[in-house]
Design goal:
The structure holds two protein chains of two kinds. Chain A is mostly helical. Chain A has helices at about 5-10, 15-35, 40-55, 65-85, 90-100, 110-125, 130-140, 145-150, 155-175. By secondary structure, chain B is of the alpha+beta class. Helix content of chain B is about 30%, strand content about 15%. Chain B contains 13 helices and 15 strands. In chain B, strand 12 and strand 13 (about 440-445) form a beta hairpin. Chain B starts with a helix and ends in a 24-residue tail after the last helix. The chains are: A mainly alpha, B alpha+beta. At the A-B interface, helix 2, helix 3, helix 4, helix 5 and helix 6 of A face helix 1, helix 2 and strand 3 of B.
């Protein structure tokens, strides 16, 4: 079932929508949540909450991409849960990934959305591999090892590519007035 | 706040990027957890790992894997490529090691899976003794080994972390875990402090150890495993210490990977991938069946089933890659002749029976905090690893009595100078204090120290010139062992960090024995590198010296000289 059909199920208040969402994006949501929470039980709860929130959001929202939509919900719920339980620092990979980003992204103030726009523009200009690695690391919070496995690269190669991408991002943002 | 905003900024990136990454990373699909939503009882593996048995099992398997792999490597020619693994066109060893995607999917093993083995060809019984002999033989061929662990936790992606031979057998993890158990009592029953290393592959801090019986059981279980690992890894260390210049260095590019899962609370199945010096890559499936999760594992209760398959690291058409000219190639002359295994370096347990536990075990982090006196003689406390190259000063070791809260109870100190801007790589490996008050410093230095002043110079000079080697295992101090590391070399740090763990842990049995084991290994290491190995003994009085010297029955082949120095330097001088 394609995304459009699933969304239509939501609009029709058909509970099959959740089953279809789980079937299509359950693994993705679970992975996002596990990467952040590092705890399967918590992740499962977050994924369940993701479906509930999706159910409550559609309608009226009609997402352009159901994949990104549920993914964002799962990510935000997981991050919120981690923060609420004050155990952000216990997730080493998450901490590392944020620390890496902090080296190249300035402190955003009221212009978070602009920064998002610049990030998107920057990533659009990157090669596919670097772009995917960047998103995998800093959006999905995968470990370097995970990325290496999934992208058929060595961990060192992943680290190096990420480093170079961050450097390019830092320069890119500097040129646009964002200084770390 | 910044982090939160960055997270928000990332959250706002184009959706097409999210979708693309999810697809390219193969994250899209059905959920991995077949029993999603089930909470109770689904974390058998968590409990298993948390209990320490799992950790120990993993560590043991790593050790077994290395050794077993080496046996195989020494015997098996060929280019067999198991299904599901990279093809011969993949010339990168590390890539070849990587199992295919499906093997690394975060698939939760069925909890009711009690099958004996996943391998149709399984059946080879692992022989530790044979492996030790083989590892020794292979080591003498200048083969080097380093490790990469690979593990897939429930519901997660494969986790991977690297290690050198210094972590062979997972010793580091085992000790970290054991120490964690010790800390447990001090922290009201919650096991979370010493799992930092563990957290790389498993979230563990939800485990409650409030139940004292549970604690005892887990702790004892750990101890059993620790002994087992000790034997394996010490022997492995011994053998590997002879492997040549690159054996412990970062030059070793070989990989060991580990992929495992627990089918239920009592079984663990793992897949091990080993490469030895880029020549061979092996896949081993190992299964250890625990007789019971609630009692000690005995040798009889342990059964390891190994299947070894070979993966060519190079182009299959070209045959196996054999870059090392010293490598004689695969042996076709039958199984490796099993030599008499080297005498175990494990100290005997006390004849009185049981294990002697110290009244308290110092916090590892505290032990890393060594009081130093800076060049201007201002007392300061800093972690030794932060004493970077070119930063001179005086190193002062405070020898405190057991249980001392601070240095007001200082009983002795030891100083050595650290010259500024020298090229010296000075590695203080250990300090030992016995009940009879003597101090041993183990030092390794890479180049001579040329210019220092006064008292400091005298100590530095003697540290760099005196070599003492103590082998007697009967010398068993009852005092506290302090073990400090000072590193200006990453290799050294990795190595000594490993030893530090072993020495801390060995307090439960015989601290000096472990120290001596470390010493032997360091000596071997020094022979394989351009380090000079220096050991200094300093005694509080003549009787202490005599006691030590009485237990130096044999000196190694190189020229040893006992440095005679009565009285430890006074801190205030």
């Amino acid at each position: 079932m394609n995304d459009q059909d699933i969304v239509e199920l939501y609009f029709g208040r058909d509970e099959q929508a959740i089953a279809e969402t789980d079937k299509k994006y359950g693994k993705l949501c679970m992975q996002v949540s596990v990467n952040i929470l590092e705890n399967k039980s918590d992740a499962e709860e977050c994924v369940s909450d993701t479906y509930l929130k999706t159910w409550n959001s559609i309608p009226p929202t009609r997402p352009n991409s159901l994949c990104a939509f549920v993914c964002k919900i799962a990510r935000n719920l997981s991050l919120n849960r981690l923060r609420d339980e004050h155990r952000e620092k216990r997730n080493r990979e998450l901490t590392l990934s944020f620390e890496e980003l902090e080296e190249c992204i300035p402190m955003p103030d009221e212009s978070v959305s602009e920064l998002s726009y610049l990030l998107t523009a920057f990533l659009d200009g990157e090669g596919e591999t670097d772009r995917v690695l960047f998103m995998g690391r800093y959006w999905f919070h995968c470990s370097v090892a995970q990325l290496a496995t999934r992208m058929s690269l060595t961990p060192n190669a992943v680290s190096l590519r990420l480093y170079k991408t961050r450097e390019r991002l830092r320069i890119y943002l500097n040129e646009r007035g964002y200084r770390v | 706040m910044k982090r939160e905003n960055i997270s928000k900024a990332m959250d706002g990136v184009g959706e097409h990027l999210i979708v693309e990454a999810a697809e390219k990373l193969d994250l899209v699909g059905a959920p991995v957890a077949a029993n999603a939503g089930k909470k109770k009882g689904q974390n058998a593996f968590v409990r298993f790992m948390n209990s320490g048995w799992g950790v120990a099992a993993v560590c043991a398997l790593v050790a077994i894997g290395v050794m077993g792999g080496i046996i195989w490597a020494g015997n098996q020619p060929g280019t067999h490529q198991p299904a599901g693994h990279p093809t011969g066109t993949d010339t990168e060893a590390s890539d070849a090691l990587r199992p295919n995607e499906t093997e690394h999917e975060a698939v939760l093993p069925p909890e009711d899976d009690t099958s004996e083995s996943t391998s149709a060809d399984a059946g080879h019984t692992f022989d530790v003794t044979a492996s030790l002999a083989a590892i020794d033989q292979l080591a003498k061929q200048n083969v080097s080994i380093s490790l990469k662990y690979h593990m897939t936790p429930y519901g997660g992606l494969p986790q991977e972390f690297n290690g050198s031979v210094g972590q062979a057998g997972g010793k580091h993890w085992a000790y970290a875990n054991t120490d964690g158990a010790a800390v447990l009592e001090e922290e009201g029953g919650y096991y979370h402090k010493y799992v930092y290393d563990m957290s790389k592959f498993w979230y563990i801090d939800t485990y409650s150890m409030a139940d004292k019986d549970e604690f005892d059981r887990v702790y004892e279980g750990r101890y059993w495993w620790k002994n087992y690992l000790d034997q394996l890894t010490f022997e492995a260390y011994d053998a590997l210490a002879y492997t040549g210049s690159s054996s412990l260095s970062e030059q070793a590019c070989d990989v060991f990977s580990f992929h495992g899962a627990v089918t239920d609370g009592s079984q663990v199945e793992v897949t091990l991938y080993v490469s030895v010096s880029d020549r061979n890559v092996m896949k081993m499936e190992v299964k250890i069946i625990q007789s019971s999760h609630s009692s000690h594992l005995s040798t009889d209760a342990r059964q390891a089933v190994i299947e070894v398959e070979r993966i060519s690291t190079g182009d299959a058409a070209k045959g196996p890659t054999i870059p090392d000219p010293k490598w004689d190639g695969p042996q076709d002359d039958g199984p490796i002749e099993i030599e008499t295994p080297p005498e175990t370096l494990l100290p005997e347990e006390p004849e009185t029976g049981g294990v002697v536990y110290p009244p308290s075990i110092p916090d590892v982090n505290d032990l890393m905090q060594v009081p130093l006196v800076s060049a201007d003689d201002t007392t300061s406390y800093m972690s030794l690893p932060y004493l970077s190259q070119g930063q001179g000063g005086m190193i002062e070791f405070f020898i405190l009595p057991d249980g001392a809260a601070d240095d007001t109870e200082l009983v002795s100190t030891y100083k050595c100078a650290f010259p500024e801007d020298s090229e010296t790589n000075l590695l203080v490996v250990g300090v030992e204090k016995s009940a009879t008050e003597y101090c041993i410093l183990y030092l390794m230095e890479k180049s001579g120290i040329t210019e220092t002043d006064g008292e400091e110079a005298r100590y530095v000079e003697m540290l760099c010139t005196e070599m003492i080697f103590l082998r007697d295992k009967n010398l068993s101090p009852t005092g506290t062992t302090y073990y400090y590391t000072l590193n200006r070399n990453s290799v050294g740090f990795q190595y000594t960090d490993q030893r530090r763990g072993s020495i801390l842990d060995s307090k439960r049995r015989d601290s000096l024995n472990a120290l001596l084991n470390a010493e032997e290994l360091l000596y071997s290491y020094s022979k394989a590198t351009d380090y000079k190995y220096t050991v200094l003994y300093s005694y509080s009085d003549q009787s202490a010296e005599e006691m030590v010297l009485a237990h130096v029955p044999e000196l190694p082949e190189f020229n040893f000289e006992v440095f005679r120095e009565y009285g430890l330097p006074d801190r205030d001088k």
